[in-house]
């Protein structure tokens, strides 16, 4: 019998939200509103779709391994060099590269609980000790606690800004003070999956690309603001030495031709991005207003979702169950380590109204 390593045996398979098809079947529903996965309610970027269709003519070919065209394009748009740019199968794909390239036996990662589950899973998959420190009382990354936990085994620190699922951010002065205290041999992985929303909602957001720290890599994705989660394309920025190491261990032919085409189209789709950000602002304000009417405790968000805190996990589970029966999918956060919290994504105006109406009735 083949022995499966203990750290793999103990992995818990990622459990996404309830699929729409399953919900329709289980409860005999015609209409389902999915607000559980932070997807773009406006659909995919138009220019991304156009470029995907054009790429069909080249599907018999392998993708160009170094992804030169898309890296050159991103370098030009973001005023940097190709050697500072990495692309992968979503930002999570690049995090996978980071574990492969930089973590050795006995290396450790520091992060906080109540953040992106994918990082915890990857750390365990690579048998890397992952120290998950508590969030602050207002659900922010506890930078002081992270600094105090660093020791000789610390190889990396993971920070999501904005954080998923809390929607909270680290502000400029906090980030700069933190980075100035980090040892130069500790890699800071700054996950900016929701940066378009945060940069639109506040001027006090520290954009990773604007800093010149040699031990920083900032990651972004097209899955949220550009609505192409289904093709898996993400990108990141760091110094050439780090990018070169990631390029060495990256699978030669990823991302796919279609994914690279989608990313190149989406990054040009300014009109679509503006519509997305406008819809998000309107949706957030509507949620805040309705949640205040209901007397619920929620937290200001700098992403495309709102987190609500309830009195108990039992209350969260009951509300989630009742909403599912009514065809509204939201996300209970027990798997994130926040069992008394619920996350609701921003939808279209109609979807938001349906969600709040049903939430009010359930409560």
Summarize the structure.
The protein is an alpha/beta fold and 363 residues long. The protein has helices at residues 6-9, 20-27, 46-55, 68-77, 90-102, 117-125, 143-149, 172-179, 195-201, 240-249, 257-266, 270-293, 313-325, 349-362; strands at residues 33-34, 85-88, 108-112, 129-133, 154-160, 187-191, 216-221, 234-237, 297-298, 305-309, 328-329, 331-332, 341-345.
Strand content is 5-15%
Give the second-level CATH assignment, the architecture of the largest domain: 3-Layer(aba) Sandwich
Count of individual beta strands: 13
Dominant shape: globular
Distance between the termini: 52 Å
Q: What average pLDDT do the residues reach?
A: 95
| Name given to the CATH homologous superfamily of the largest domain | Type I PLP-dependent aspartate aminotransferase-like (Major domain)
Largest sheet: 7 strands, mixed
Helical residue percent band: 40-55%
Return the structural class.
Answer: alpha/beta
Describe this entry's structure for a reader.
- With 363 residues, the protein is α/β, with parallel strands linked by helices.
- It folds into two domains: 6-43 and 270-362, Aspartate Aminotransferase, domain 1, CATH 3.90.1150; 46-266, 3-Layer(aba) Sandwich (Aspartate Aminotransferase, domain 2), CATH 3.40.640.
- It has 14 helices and 13 strands.
- The protein has helices at residues 6-9, 20-27, 46-55, 68-77, 90-102, 117-125, 143-149, 172-179, 195-201, 240-249, 257-266, 270-293, 313-325, 349-362; strands spanning 33-34, 85-88, 108-112, 129-133, 154-160, 187-191, 216-221, 234-237, 297-298, 305-309, 328-329, 331-332, 341-345.
- The strands form three sheets. Strands 2-8-7-6-5-3-4 form a seven-stranded mixed sheet, sandwiched between helices.
- Helix 5 packs across helix 10 (240-249).
- The protein is globular.
- The mean pLDDT is 95.
